[in-house]
Amino acid sequence: MSASGAPVGADDLRKVYVEPTNACNLNCTTCVRHAWDEPEGFMEWATFEALVEGLAETAGDGGGGAAAGPHAAGTVAFMGLGEPLLHPRFLDMVRLVKARGRRAEVTTNALLLDDIMAAGLLAAGLDQLVVSIDGASAEAFGRVRTGASLAKVVENVRRLHDQRGPNYGPGMRIGIEFVAMRSNIEELPGLNRLAAQLGATFIIVSNVLAYAPELKAETLYDQRVIASAGGETTAAPRWQLPTFDWDEDLGAALGRALARSGPVDFAAGGASDVTSRCPFVEADACAVAWHGGVGPCPPLLHTYTCFVRGRAKRMTRWEVGRLPDEPLAAVWAKPAYAAFRERVRRFDFPPCTDCGCDLAEGNEEDCFGNPHPVCGDCLWARGIVRCA
User: Fold this and answer.
1) Which of 36, 105, 118, 210 has the fewest CB atoms found within 10 Å of its own CB?
2) Is the pTM higher than 0.90?
């Protein structure tokens, strides 16, 4: 047992997704702000301190801190529905995380990554920076991120990359996160060139989650949502694919062949690796909103409307507890929350994404009788939508 009474073992909390603010300096066409009316706010320092201390207590590394490895040490991932760098004490947040021996990551639009911020992040020891870029050309980038300059983003991230050296060490990883839509898929080949400009070593591609009716036509997955690893039929047979030399012709041919297939097994792993598995629960993670509300994942921090396979769905937030009034370890150990995590690991939910009955219009109940929140319609669990 931990000092606060939370059990220590296989269900240790190892990662916290933190929303320093839900305010943003952009107004992207793909943003959830077009589907909600929540007030803007910034996380108070006492809330953040409680979060970091709670992670230190529950990470299960026996006090080993960062020396025990990134998974054992615990990770604080700054992200959410706002721009983390807008928080007036963001550098202090990173410093505190690193002072406690934890791993620090951030996903950002990088427009506020000026000289002072870059030097501060390097000095603090930030482990990973992922920049959100939805176009490899200035024109495509500007269509999504109205009024923003791709050249400025490249300049800022490149400055950060170039400052790594004898004073700071090469430890920080830089990556790109790209939201794929029908209107920007022609930008995908340009990401390799952009990665070289930014010094990025990895690229994460996600599908768009449609928060507005006009985005329904932008989705690339309506025919490929798979509710489970099985389900092969004569109408939708399972495909097992070898390792290929991927090129444009092969990609186009496979795209036509697999548009209405059943599960697809690649040489590196099968469909079961990405379907019916929650990437947040599997990572022993939780999420904390700017106001201190604790939820099981970033998608459940807020209430909003989105569109799944063309139908409107009301996502209702689920708050398990609230910092700093409740210790994070005590929130993690609540029986209802522990039961939810176990249910998600079994993925004991109906295939709502394939069914689409009236119950799929929200996330508060399903035909299995599960309590709120239900996850049978979750695109993150299908590997359709991804986060850094």
Assistant:
1) 36
2) no
